[in-house]
Structure formats: C-alpha cells, structure tokens
Amino acid sequence: MAFGALSSAYLYSNPSPFGGIWEIDANLDATLPVNECACQEAAPGVNWQKFQKDLRGNLQSDPSFSRPWVHELCSATYSAFFATSRVDEATFQIWKSTCGAGLLAVAAVCSQSIALQMADVSSRWRWTERPVQAEGRAVKDILEAMPAGDCLRLCEEHEECASVAHGPFGCHLKDKCVTSGEQLVLPGVAPGYRTYYQRGGPCTAEDGVEPVSSPHHLSEIRLLMDAAVRLLDHVVHCLDKSDWPFTIEEVLANRMEFTAATLHAHRNGEFYFRWSRSQRFLLPVTCDAASRATVGDAGAVCRTLSRLMIRWVRGLDSEVGFWHALLDPSNAENPEVDFSSWRSAQDWLLSGDITWHYGDICTFLAAARGHTTSYGRPRVLNAGSGPLAPGRIDCGDSVTVVASDGLARFYLQLYDILQHDPPVVPLQCPTEALHHCFPQHHFDVVHMRNSLDHANDPLMGILELIWVARPGGWVLLRHARNEGVAGHFQLGLHQWASADLDCDHGVLLCFV
Q: Could you tell me the pTM of the whole model?
C-alpha cells in the first residue's frame, strides 16, 4: 500500500519561536551546511578524509564490523571526539566545533568497540581508553596479534599477572594492580592499545568483583549512542547522500536495539549489544535522501519529519522508564510516581480491567454493524494502547478488542523484568505501519486515545487507521488539546499537538 508523498500534506512554518532545538533546526534549514557531511577540514587530532577512507575500507573487508580495526580506529579518534563536541543535557543539544558526520561515525565506531570488548572479556575485567603510563613489571610478552579475550585468559592463568596492555600487535602481561584513576599516556601514543585490569586474582578490592556490564561501561556506550542520534539533527539533510557509510535509519535502529539490550541486562545482568550494519528500522520513513536535501519549504517539511523520527527514538528511554515505574509493584510510596496511575496499572495486572475509552464503544460498534456485518465478526482495535492492553468488551455479546503499540516489544521486556504475567499483551505494531500487521477492512471500530501525538507522522497514522477500518465503521481519535505545546515539543514523545479548530488553513483537525 502506498499513500504517495504525504509530506506535501504538511505546511511548514518557522519553528524558531519554540526555541531550543527548533531554533537550531531553523538555522540549519536556512543554510543546509555542506561541510556537515563533506568534512573537508581536519579537526584537532583527526583527519576526517583519512578517517573516512580507513573506515570505508575496513567495513568493505569486514562487513561484520567486529575485527580489531574497530578498536584501533576508536583509539585514534576517541579523544578528538570529546575535544570537539559536548552534550548539553539541559537543552538536549550537542555543541561541536567540527563536522557532524565525522563525529557521528566516531561515536558509532567507539560504541561498537566498547560493546565488542564487553563481550570478549570475563566479568572480572575493566579497561582504560588508552594504556596507563606506569604499567608495572612485565610478566610475559606475546609479540603478535591476539584476541583480547585470549590475552586476558593468559593473565588469569598466570599467578603474577594483575593487568594487561593489549593492542593490535601484542599482548603484554603486567604485575601492577591498576586502579580507575591511573594517569594515561597521551592521545596518539600506542594507538589501538588499552590497559585491562582485574578485580580479583592477585588484586583485591573492597567492593569485590565488578561485573562487565557495570553502569560505567553501559553509560559510556549510552553517551556515544545518544551523541550519534543527536548529531543526526545536524546532518539529516546530507548524511544519506554522503560518502559516510552510516545512514540515518541504521543509527536509529541500533539505538533502539541498545534500549532493548539494556532492558535485557536489567533483567539478568547479561548485556548483549552489537552495532549491526543490517539492522532494519521498523518505522516507515516519509522522505528519502533526495527530498531531505531539497531547498525550500518542501525540503524543510521532510527534514522536520525526519528529525521528529530521530527525536521519537531519543524519547524511547523516557517512555519505557515511565511505564516501568507504573508497572513496578514496589513504587506504591515513591513520591516521583503518580499514585493514581500506579494504582490503575496494578489493578490491571490483577484483573485485566483498565479504563481505555469513554464508555461509548458499544454504541459506535452497534452503529457500525449496520454496514459491516458482511466483513465478518465484530472487532475493535485500540491502537497505541501502551502496556495496559484491554481484552474483550461486553456489548451484549463479548467482542474482541485487539491492542497494538509501536513499543510493545519493550513492554514485553518490562513484564519479564518485573515477573508479571499480564492478562493481555499488545501486539507490536506502530500506528504508521498498521497495514503490515492487519488486513484491510478488519475492524468495525478503530480507537486511539492520547497517543497519536506520539507519532512520527500523524497523517500517515490516520490513513493507516482508516485502512484497517471497515467501510461504514468508525475511527475515533480522542486526544488532549495542545499536548506538546507546554514542553515546546521537546519533552519525551510529545511531538505534536492536536486541536479541534480551523488552524487558519480551512481544516477541521490539524496537527502542529
């Protein structure tokens, strides 16, 4: 099914009055800076043209993105990344002094480097970004390439070994018990090498063995992944048409997988994440690379829709964390959790009862059935349900209610983490992709409450809702007015506002 160029249904107005990220967006749209992706000028500590050439060549010979070159490239550029960029958590902005696409590539490479090392070492090991200056006495030297895991196992088998200097050309066992505050060699010295140090063996620590999936390592990957996603705002007009090997969709898909991996680690302590070059982004993409590069209002609309998709991914952790708090039975007296909402979630877990409509679904269903009986048994869809999914509804006869949500896969993880056996579970299906999940003309009543404002592309969502509704049926949109306005469309997933008014464009329902 194709709806054509939906972006043309949107009208563009300058978003600068909302301030913050919107003001930056307006400036970028006005100039479309070529150097954000061309990266012709070198930055302190890195030649972008050489880095791009090395990156492309290595990915061509190693499509798995997993061999030692990943660590070497990260080591050569890691310091330059933090010397030329800074994330402002208060304003959700990233400040930088060099090209965005190059910094994004460094963030991708280094997040993969850390993830690979976390998988390759046992839980007793930690590491530094560069070798420590004072390494201690040499216990044994292997002067040839060796996987980090094999090198560390050699150290674990040697009773005098307490730390390791490992890199692309060797494995060096040391007797020094390194601590996290050690002074490191200068950037550019011994590129590709790190010091690994133990919490066990000949070394002792009051806090015992620290697991490899510790907050230290997870937060380092999170920082890099979030920086990559934020940098997409700056390169949305040029990245996918550039010579850089990473695409917008690839970055977003991997950030979503990182969220899933951290939830998995929360459940059983095992963190498994790899940057995958083949990871598919599951939300439909409204505009292609050529449209995003177009000058004028049409291009600005496409870039805005793409940035909303980027910010939707950025808001995932907040949305999942919100529901985690409500589903957690231990939060009854947590002052940061709304008790009424928490109580509703806990009641749903016990009984399956949840207030999800205004008491009029059966009325609309009865009106629809005068036109829809030839399509089959009555059905109701509650799209964008959240984790508290309704089951059946009593309209004289029991009627099936199907719940769907674009974040259902994460809600399933929350049920597991909290050891819940939910009465009903939602289906994984974004509103903008309902036709991938259900046949056409499948529901008598299609209902959506306070969730279309979370969408990346609400007009596409509305067309999808109509697609799955039966002729003569109903599509019910129940939303608070101007939901995103108070937070200037920058808080969580509240990216749109709906209003039942003219909006100065001669339409009954508008989204701003």
A: 0.82
